[in-house]
Amino acid sequence: MYKVLVMDGISDLGIQLLNDAADVTVDKKAGLSEDELIAIIADYDALMVRSQTKVTERIMAAASKLKVVGRAGVGVDNINLEAATQRGIVVINAPDGNTIATCELTFAMMMSVARSIPQAYKKTVGGEWDRKTFVGVELRNKVLGILGMGRIGSEVAKRAKVFGMEVIGYDPFLTEERAEKIGVKLGTVNEISAKADFITVHTPLTNETRHIIARPQFELMKKGVRIINCARGGIIDEMALVEAIESGTVAGAAFDVYEQEPPQADHPFLNNPKIIVTPHLGASTVEAQENVAIDVSEEVLHILRDEPFKNAVNMPPVPATVMNKLQPYFTLGEKLGQFIGQTTEGAVKEIVVSYAGELTGVDTTPLTRYIVKGVLSNQLEGVNIVNAMHLAKSRDVNVVIQQSSASKTFTNLVSVKLKTKNDEHLVAGTLLSGYGERIVQIDQYPVDIAPNGNLLLISHNDKPGIIGKVGTLLGNNDVNIATMQVGRKVIGGSAIMLLTTDKQTPKEVLQQLKQLPELIDVNELSL
Ligand SMILES: NC(=O)C1=CN([C@@H]2O[C@H](COP(=O)(O)OP(=O)(O)OC[C@H]3O[C@@H](n4cnc5c(N)ncnc54)[C@H](O)[C@@H]3O)[C@@H](O)[C@H]2O)C=CC1
Ligand SMILES: O=C(O)C(=O)COP(=O)(O)O
Question: Where does the record place the ACT domain (predicted)?
Fold first, then answer.
């Protein structure tokens, strides 16, 4: 008999399937502390949660029987995926079930912030008949900027078009063709900041998206702009928003999510009359809760019964027969993907993977998944080798596999080329017996570097004195260079410099490096 623990008020109708299953018993609990959960979790084969329960490493460590954590929703930022993967616990989510609910809340927030509905309600029920204060604005003919054009962002765009809004979208995976298809113009974060009357965010919270709207963006905005966040707290810098409201740039904001949930009683949003707040209600509709609970219950049953399942966010089911040959290359593949993903700008249209040497003739599909995962993980939350190919396809990213004849120089060689509309970049690596993974080529330049830690990739013209300038600037700012490689084809031509540093290079130092006139481009990478 499988035991399933259902937390966070997941819909009863949605988990009917589990209640009806003869081989399953279900316990429902809510509001358990981490320690309370740790005390009971060893009894359970499956755990189902929404966003409230934080499934920490300590909980996973105590969960000796746990086979699966089911997230009845999209974001898995409350689940320690690393710890789950390490323990072979599958994490699944329900990515589609709450798209419309969250999109509709976003629209409700946009209309509320345009017409001050909550503020007007408060006064009216308080006995005031105030028809002067609440003169709003129309959505028609306004510019809506959307950061994150995935499932929810695209649905918001569709509805905005019907309201007569002009929509500008920003998403590294939004190609011009797809944007045109859904009637959205492409823009950068700064262009959106400068042009939009309303800005809404629909990205996951990642290193890239944390504070993607912050003081510099508020400084670009038009007076009277309105800001909505129904995605994740932290995508918009909360304090910078409060300042922008005080300065008169932002006319109003509507937030469903916060950097800390629930926010502290003295959080500045809670007593600001221009900010509308809701308690993370995006997915809270009867329909969405049934949808996500049904989706997760079905998947949990499949996993408990060892049947095939689809929405895993962490699980690497590699067939044993290919495992032995390919496993040594998995880290190399993922790092090459991460490297090229972090150094290429613009919407990726194609990933071309070439295998040579002893990898020729092997079914390299599982390895390709690691590479694609590496490429996508820079922009998407919850990418793993199970869902990487599916995510690439759903974002119109073509994955091409080539098996070339044996490499002349290396016994094995993996090359990854990323193509965007105007550009293409290549990285190649090999697995050296006794030395591990090495990057051996970047674009046309031969190099030899271990793909680990903090890297700086600098392109420049090959002139005397540049290495010294870079070294001095980093040294003066306490960034210690661990290794350095210079790659060039001809003396005095274009060249690259690849440095590994003992710590991350601070943003302001990167900025100073970029200002050195001899340097063409500076990319910071973390592998
Ligand atoms: N308030 C609530 O209750 C809910 C919040 N959410 C949150 O909404 C967010 C979006 O959900 P979905 O649309 O279903 O996910 P999705 O994965 O379909 O879309 C996210 C999009 O963000 C894009 N993106 C990633 N990094 C980016 C960057 N640096 N700049 C611009 N775009 C970037 C991705 O390419 C992707 O297209 C998630 O974070 C999710 O957790 C989802 C459901 C309910
Ligand atoms: O699905 C998501 O990402 C959400 O944020 C919804 O969270 P919830 O299930 O309502 O706690």
Answer: 455-527
